[in-house]
TrEMBL record:
Recognizes and hydrolyzes the peptide bond at the C-terminal Gly of ubiquitin. Involved in the processing of poly-ubiquitin precursors as well as that of ubiquitinated proteins. Pfam families: UCH (PF00443). Residues 112-715 form the USP domain. Coiled coil: none annotated. This is Ubiquitin carboxyl-terminal hydrolase. It comes from the Eukaryota. PANTHER family: UBIQUITIN CARBOXYL-TERMINAL HYDROLASE. Belongs to the peptidase C19 family. It is an enzyme of class 3 (hydrolase). One of its GO terms (molecular function) is cysteine-type deubiquitinase activity. Keywords: Hydrolase, Protease, Thiol protease, Ubl conjugation pathway. It catalyses: Thiol-dependent hydrolysis of ester, thioester, amide, peptide and isopeptide bonds formed by the C-terminal Gly of ubiquitin (a 76-residue protein attached to proteins as an intracellular targeting signal). GO terms for biological process: protein deubiquitination; proteolysis. It comes from Ceratopteris richardii.
Length: 735
């Protein structure tokens, strides 16, 4: 650093870098072979270098582990008090300890905390888990400079790897006080602007970025070859998996791939032609759903199509990636659907069929129809408010969900017939009492299939002369006669205006009461849809409770949004099985079927094929819906020892893992705090890393509902041919 023209950026001087200043004393420089400390010389008004005899050890800060590469750790962890001991003793070349009765006693290495720079607990938690990964400790404490790939266009010119390596060495340096990772954060923000500033972030998102960035910076492949994917051609899975892994390794070869990457099998099946597609893809970590994220609660309003009952809201629980037929099945049980009935599921602008996937943004309604109407054309009444003629013109205001019924098989000829059907559907919505059944004492009105409207004093308020001349079209109509007709409705012929068409937003024709229905009714085929726009004047809005036409809001049942329900404990194995369960793809992930030549909502099934030595498991605790953002505090029972995944992989590899680190999140969705639990393997003891504070913790206390990311290392048996690095789980020999 003796070039005065060089800028700090050119010299790669970052925040928190330590700079050694050497001063000539009597024309000579201090001995380069000795480590020196600085103290003030008030007489000379200059800095003097005072040599200190070092305590020899096997650890070298600048050169990594020397000699046999062993890292000295205390065999008595009880001697460790904290990183903030006032009597701490620090020797840069290798001594780590504190003074007790004039004797220097050693303390464990790797117990250095990280200062919180302002909402950086997420970074501290993720870093502590990574810097205590056995293979990474061994790798970065050695000379790794020959592994850095500065020319990888997907990498960060090796700077992320160097920054992480420097940080890891500082955290494993003996006797250090809590360290402020400002330099690392500056470099991180340079390549990942989303982590700049001092906002709270997700530790798992940072872990994903670090693992991928370290891989690219340490990729041993300097020039990636072009690899052409071959067709499946009904080849064995073993051959396909091996070929895909070799192709992946030809372009991606680093310490991260060696220890952290596995492979899973993905099977897609087309729902139309049953075409099967199998691929084998690498993974860096497993993101497992919690059981409470596998289901969703829907509030669906059910309408009757004959006016027999008022609209009623039902709450059902279905799979999160469920289809319409699943919602219909759950709703049928909730409303005690009869054997001769069926349910039609709709959203405001369309009718949903069984195979369709229910999306998060769908606002669902349901309609109860008889099974005998399956082949009949459907009448879809779209209600909108009639605006008075005014300038400027107001936009159309729709009133809630459309009402649906079926077209009668016969005697459905005039506009009056259509009026009668619509009036009957509206009966449960009337604010004033009506008589919907025929008065047996009024034979004349019974024959006409009409009912008189009662006046306030209980007398019949309408005489025969008030009834319009529409009886001919009503008489003999089974559906209208079954529905019953209210004279109040027939009397007020101008209360509603109907416009019919074959398309939801297409052209419409006026339906007049005493005239034949438009041609679209006579030419309607089975399962056809006839859209009828109904203009509601102010008088109608006052007589009917139009609020009942509004759709139910998802998840807004009593207490659901306000009261957080405690979830029952689940096992990590059940989360894994839920991850591997077959499910349909979402609308945004449509698969292009090579057989159909169209995008399809295929079903997808994942299977584990190859497992890495370091298995990172992410528990998906944060859930998002249309109305709610929530954090799940479900207690996940995860094994600390002997996580056995042998039955989930087809090969005969030993797949038993031990836990060595946990990233925890405490608090809610909007805020919280991250910590880490880490096991020092040679000490066989767990420690809590809460930013700068480090303290021992019992193994029984590390299982909490705050566990967010789990770190497992594979346990090798004595017959394994796997490499055995110092300080890793692979040193543990199982008989």
């Amino acid at each position: 650093m003796n070039d005065p023209k060089q800028t700090l950026e050119d010299a790669d001087i970052q925040m928190d870098h330590e700079v050694l200043l050497e001063v000539q004393v009597d024309g000579s420089w201090p001995d380069e072979g000795q480590k020196c400390s600085l103290e003030s010389n008030s007489k000379e008004n200059e800095l003097a270098l005072v040599p200190v005899a070092p305590v020899r050890s096997s650890f070298s800060v600048d050169g990594g582990p020397s000699g046999n590469r062993n890292i000295t750790r205390s065999s008595s962890p009880d001697n460790f008090l904290s990183n903030t001991l006032n009597s701490s003793y620090d020797d840069r070349e290798g001594g780590a300890g504190y003074f007790a009765g004039g004797v220097v006693k050693s303390v464990p290495l790797g117990l250095t905390g990280l200062q919180n720079l302002g909402n950086t607990c997420f970074m501290n938690s993720a870093l502590q888990c990574l810097v205590h990964t056995p293979e990474l400790v061994d790798f970065f404490l050695n000379d790794y400079t020959h592994e850095i790939n500065t020319n990888n266009p997907l990498g960060m010119e090796g700077e992320l790897a160097m920054a992480f390596g420097e940080l890891l060495r500082k955290l494993w340096e003996p006797g250090r006080q809590p360290f402020a990772p400002r330099g690392f954060k500056v470099r991180l923000a340079r390549f990942a602007p989303q982590f700049s500033g001092y906002n709270q972030h997700d530790s798992q998102e940072l872990l994903a970025f670090l693992l991928d960035g370290l891989h690219e910076d340490l990729n041993r492949v300097k020039l990636k070859p072009y690899v052409e994917s071959k067709d499946e051609d009904d080849r064995p899975d073993e051959e396909l998996a091996r070929e895909n892994w070799e192709n992946h390794k030809a372009r991606n070869d680093s310490i991260i791939v060696d220890i952290c990457q596995g492979q899973y099998k993905s099977t897609l099946v087309c729902p139309v032609c049953s075409k099967v597609s199998i691929t084998f893809d690498p993974f860096m970590y497993l993101s497992l759903p919690l059981p409470s994220t596998l289901t969703r609660t829907l509030s669906v309003k059910l309408f009757s199509t004959d006016g027999a009952t008022a609209p009623m809201t039902y709450t059902v629980t279905v799979a999160k990636q469920s289809r319409c037929k699943d919602v219909i099945l759950a709703l049928s049980k909730a409303c005690s659907l009869g054997e001769d009935e069926r349910i039609l599921l709709t959203e405001p602008f369309s009718i949903l069929d069984g195979p369709s996937l229910v999306r998060e943004e769908d606002s669902l309604t349901a309609h109860r129809l008889p099974k005998s109407s399956e082949k009949a054309p459907l009448l879809i009444f779209v209600n909108k408010r009639t605006e008075e003629d005014s300038l400027p013109k107001k936009p159309v205001r729709y009133l809630g969900s459309p009402l649906i019924t079926w077209v009668p098989e016969e005697n459905f000829r005039t506009g009056a017939d259509l009026y009668h059907v619509f009036e009957r559907i509206l009966q449960p919505l009337r604010k004033t009492p009506t008589v919907s059944s025929v008065n047996v004492e009024d034979a004349k009105h019974e024959e006409n299939g009409l009912c008189n409207h009662l006046s306030e004093d209980g007398e019949m308020g309408i005489n025969d002369n008030d009834i319009p001349n529409v009886n001919a079209s009503v008489e003999g109509n089974p559906q209208v006669k079954a529905f019953g007709v209210c004279n109040h409705f027939l009397k007020d012929q101008k209360l509603f205006q109907f416009y019919a068409g074959e398309e939801r937003f297409g052209a419409k024709v006026l339906v007049e009461m005493n005239k034949e229905l438009p041609d679209i009714f006579s030419r309607a085929r089975s399962n056809a849809h006839i859209y009828v726009e109904v203009n509601w004047p102010q008088q109608a809005l006052e007589e009917y409770d139009v609020k009942q036409l509004e759709t139910a809001v998802e998840g807004m049942r009593t207490g659901f949004a306000l009261k957080k329900q405690r979830q029952e404990a689940v096992s990590l194995y059940s989360c894994l099985e839920a991850f591997l369960k077959e499910e349909p793809l979402g609308p945004e992930d449509m698969w292009y079927c090579p057989s159909c030549k169209e995008h399809r909502q295929a079903s997808k099934k994942l299977d584990l094929w190859r497992l890495p030595d370091i298995l990172v498991v992410h528990l998906k605790r944060f859930s998002y819906s249309r109305y709610l953002k929530n954090k799940l505090d479900t207690f996940v029972e995860f094994p600390v020892h002997d996580l056995d995944l042998c039955k989930y992989i087809p090969q005969n590899d030993k797949a038993v893992y031990d836990l060595y680190a946990i990233s925890n999140h405490y608090g809610s969705m909007g805020g919280g705090h991250y910590t880490a639990y880490v096991k020092l393997l040679e000490e066989n003891r767990w420690y809590s890393f809460d930013d700068s504070h480090v303290s021992p913790v019992s193994e029984t206390d590390i299982m909490t509902p705050a566990a967010y990311v789990l770190f497992y290392c594979r346990v090798r048996n004595e017959n394994s041919n796997g490499y055995l690095n110092h300080g890793s789980c692979q040193n543990r020999v199982r008989n």
